[in-house]
Amino acid sequence: xxxxxxxxxxxxxxxxxxxxxxxxxxxxxxxxxxxxxxxxxxxxxxxxxxxxxxxxxxxxxxxxxxxxxxxxxxxxxxxxxxxxxxxxxxxxxxxxxxxxxxxxxxxxxxxxxxxxxxxxxxxxxxxxxxxxxxxxxxxxxxxxxxxxxxxxxxxxxxxxxxxxxxxxxxxxxxxxxxxxxxxxxxxxxxxxxxxxxxxxxxxxxxxxxxxxxxxxxxxxxxxxxxxxxxxxxxxxxxxxxxxxxxxxxxx
Length: 251
Prior knowledge:
By secondary structure, this protein is α+β, with helices and mostly antiparallel strands. Helix content is 24%, strand content 25%.
C-alpha cells in the first residue's frame, strides 16, 4: 500500500544563515557613529528581571530574514529584541543573520533610528513598489506581527512607539517620553546624559528604581560604595583612638 512521504521540516530544507547573504553589494554600508553608540546603550541597559541572558537576544544591524517563500528578502533593523532565544555563548556560534524560520521566534520589539532618508519607510508612509519586497512597516506589522515598534528621531528629539493591537499598530501615548513594557518589567525612554564620552539625548532602558546602569556606572557605584565604607572605617578608628583604644590591636 502506498505510504505518502511527509514533507521535511523547514529546519532541514530551508536555507540557513550560512546560506543567506549578510551583506549585499550596493548597500549603504556600515551605520554611522550615532547608530553604533545608541545600539550599544540599548544593549547594555536591557536587563530584564524576567529573563536571564540565556533567554534573551539583542541584535543591532543584523539581517532579519522573515519570509520562507522569499528567502532572500530581509530587513535590517537598527536594534531588536527577541525573547526566548539565547545569545551565542561561543564565538563560532555567533549569528551571521537572524532567520525566522530557523529560529522559530519572531522579534518582540524593534527599534529604528530615524534618518532623513528613511523616515517614510520607518513610519509606514511609503507604499510598496510593484514587484519589490514589502516595506519595513508591512513586515513588522503584518508579517512578523512584532508586538512593539519604536522609532527615534534624534534630529527632532522625537520618540514614537507603537503597540500591535489586533492587526495594526496603534501609537502609544508617552508620558515624559517614556513607556513601560509589563512583560519585561522595563521601560524605554529618552535620557539626557553622557555615554561613551558623547553627550546627548539617548534612548535607554529604565526599571522601577530608575535608569538601568551601564557597566561604567556600575563600576563607579562600586567605587563610591568602597570609598564610603573606607570613610566609615576611618571615622570608627578615629573614635576608638579618642577613647584610648587602638583599633589596630582589636581581635
